[in-house]
Amino acid sequence: MHIRKFDFNYSRRMFLEKTMMGAATAGVLAPMWPELAHSADVSKAYPDELLSIEMYTKGKIKPGDVLTADNVDAVKDLLDPVTYKQVKTMSRRINIVESTRDVTKLYPASYLETTLKNKGKAKFGPDGNVYNADGKPWIGGSPFPDAKEANEFTANLTLSWGRHDYSQYAVRDWDIGPDGEVSYQYDFVWAELNATARVDGTTWNNRADLLRLQSVWFTSPNDVKGSSFLNTWYYDQRKFPDLIGYLPAFKRVRQFPTNQRFEPLVPGITLFLSDAWAAGDPMQTWGNYKIVGRGPMLGAIGNKNFMGGSHPNYERPVHGGPKGKSFHDTYMELIPECVIIEAEPTGYPRAPVGKKRTCIDVRNGMYVSYVTYDRRGEIWKSFEPAYAQYSNDKLTIKDVDGKPAWSWVAVICHDVQSNRLSRFVQAKEVTGGYKSTYSEGGIDVYNKYLTPQAIGRLGA
């Protein structure tokens, strides 16, 4: 018989106390990061009840089960309201798997190593930006791995989105209309190059004034092929990025309003620039950051979500909705501790968004759920990512250091007010021969993908 030393009510009291304190380290039984210095296993920081969905739900849900409308109420408190609604009323199914205890499976290996090496060196300057101890831009990894306050969690998301110095995602997207049919299908490529806050500790091209260059270009279908956009982010998080784009109808590169971040890039898609990594806008163009909740959560973070070996292009089976096409298969597990961060778009007086809530796994500082609300306070959109270390029993994809790669694998973005939904995957390859990769691979990616001239060339 298993004797519970720390039951659910004990953990709930601990999380409530942490939330009321406003600043608290990760872990319940012990601070998590000192434990990780000795072992990658989080078991000493959390009781079994927070690492076993079966124990947490008193046997109502266990690994191998599938969440449906019939049993989802047993874990309603572990889901954001949109995901709960999808399962309860839209015939979505979610596969439940064992909790990940090995933290090394929740990071790119080099990013985790850099985070550990630089732990304790970050600080906020008088201007609200993150700096190294010498007053220069941050030198790489998560600046606040043991984050305690809302702005520290947000800085971890903002400074390095994909947690690689260069990431290139080949994305295949399906946009589902209210009738459940696929109304649009797009292929596009998303590239991001960090100038500062790099894992390799360098400053790209001596541009200490920049945080990142990020571009996106559509390769299919023909009516949007060539639509391309380039964001140039400054390191100073008080400044708006420069946004330029190429639209085939105009046949030229043009400047876009930098606050035009709450609109779809192409017809039908529910993805906005503001949605990227739940931190698609400079940190200080949002404000009133606060922790409004803390506790366990269900999230899609485990290796089961990697489709390598199951599908040649890493695409996913689909189900649910009026026509069985609305949702791709997802594997969720019990995350022992998440924080919920709330913020408001203080730099956008005409923004249609009133606030956002971001749920972040404290073990790796990555968001697992992101929900935006309109100006009336009503839920507008959800943005649900799935992550994986790219390794399973069929296939392992290695990074440049020979370690299993880690990245996002899929997203479900649901506009609940219009009931339009975008689901997209990080594919192996998309139209145009573009492939997903997490290094520059000897290619001059700046001149090829990340300049105004490159945007015009990609568009033409």
Overview of the molecule:
With 460 residues, this protein is α+β, with helices and mostly antiparallel strands. It has one domain (1-460): Lipoprotein localisation LolA/LolB/LppX (outer membrane lipoprotein receptor (LolB), chain A), CATH 2.50.20.10. The chain has 8 helices and 21 strands. The chain has helices at 8-21, 32-36, 53-56, 81-89, 109-118, 150-159, 445-449, 452-459, and strands at residues 66-67, 94-96, 123-124, 130-131, 166-176, 182-194, 210-220, 228-234, 242-247, 252-255, 287-299, 318-319, 327-328, 331-344, 353-361, 366-374, 379-389, 406-415, 420-427, 429-430, 434-435. It has a 15-stranded mixed beta sheet that branches. Strands 3-4 form a two-stranded antiparallel ribbon. A hairpin with a 5-residue loop joins strand 5 and strand 6. The N and C termini lie far apart (68 Å). The mean pLDDT is 92. This is DUF1329 domain-containing protein. Pfam families: DUF1329. InterPro entries: DUF1329, TAT_signal.
